[in-house]
Hints:
Elements: E1 11-20, E2 23-24, H1 26-34, E3 41-42, E4 55-56, H2 69-88, E5 98-101, H3 109-118, H4 122-134, H5 139-143, H6 149-158, E6 165-167, H7 173-186, E7 192-199, H8 204-212, E8 242-250, H9 251-256, E9 263-272, H10 285-298, E10 307-309, H11 316-330, E11 339-340, H12 343-346, H13 353-367, E12 369-370, E13 393-394, E14 399-406, E15 410-417
Parallel strand pairs: 5-6, 5-7, 10-11, 10-14
Antiparallel strand pairs: 1-2, 1-8, 1-9, 3-4, 7-8, 9-15, 12-13, 14-15
Helix pairs in contact: 2-6, 7-13, 10-11
Amino acid sequence: MSKDRYGRQTVVVxxxxxxxxxxxxxxxxxxxxxxxxSGIHAITRFPVDQxxxxxxxxxxxxxxSKVGASxxxxxxxxxxxxxxxxxxxxxxxLGGPLFLAAPPVELDWHRRFELYRDGRPGQEGxxxxxxxxxxxxTPKAYEETQFGVIAERLADLFGARGLPVTLSTACASxxxxxxxxxxxxxxxxxxxxxxxxxxxxATAEALIRFSLLSALSTQNDPPEKASKPxxxxxxxFVISEGSAALVLxxxxxAKARGAEILGVISGCGEKADDFxxxxxxxxxxxxxxxxxxxxxDAGMDAGEIAYINAHGTSTPENDKMEHLSLSTVxxxxxxxxxxxxxxxxxxxxxxxxxxxxxxxSLMTMREGVIPPTINYDNPDPAIDLDVVPNVKREADVASVxxxxxxxxxxxxxxxxxxxxx
Length: 421
């Protein structure tokens, strides 16, 4: 059936691309993830002697990692996008819209210093800095201040149609990009779309900002043990980088061209949380509403979910809130549903997290293997969950709920299925 139970186009995935601190490509990432290997390591990109947090899941093996956040985000997005388009068999002729989840743009520090050298103190100096940024002699510096420039370049490179959309909804960004692609296909605006989540913004400034919020783990030694979602001794997330891309396509279009179907995006749900600029509402009501909205959009009930890819950041508050939210929706069954956090191995990839975890969720169904939650050596008695502790698990998984609960009240959940529902 090319239509879902609501009479909308069924949206399937025909291509996946992934880059994380574990490596480049979905094959390398999946092997490491299911082996329980961590990509968290000591920071070498900038001095950390005076910092409380000295570890990350930075992607240091791409050339642009030495250039700056904008350049690295661009390379991460392109690398994942190319892999996804190649698997989908459409090369650089997407023929549909591009939705890119990316971090808020800030001028890279080496560019700031470059501009400062050309400026003078006071208002006159400020105006001079802006002038230099716009000057034809420094077009690259000017481009780095424009939020949509990466998507525009990728749209040309990949043969996208229409104006590319760049969005930033905090930790939910990657999932939101997928949701926008799904909705565009359902509305009949296109046969296929490319959704990418990319984030190369693990800069010194970002590290300091999150540290000031007491959000980061300070358990630096050994680095690979720092991210421990749902454990009693968790103390914060590990800032990381990465990217994932999904080629989304109507089932009708995919079948017509003989494409391999990798899974189905059955439902999307979102709910805003206005409680606090960083903290989640203690009663979990927005997260509960986002989960319920995703299930309703898929036309499924909670009893049909076989596995949950947790947001699972390893912060004391988020893990507790996620447990409360899921227990409210799933009731006593929550104790027996496997739920694991990829962030235990790759850290928190911020704007890219929702897309990366969606990619891994699709691979879980496809491969029949649930990645573990590693570093689960000290269970939290207040969080009674089957977290697939430390070792992967073979399982027949027909449906997945993937959660993304972000700073600023951005909550997006995806329901994915192995077959159309």
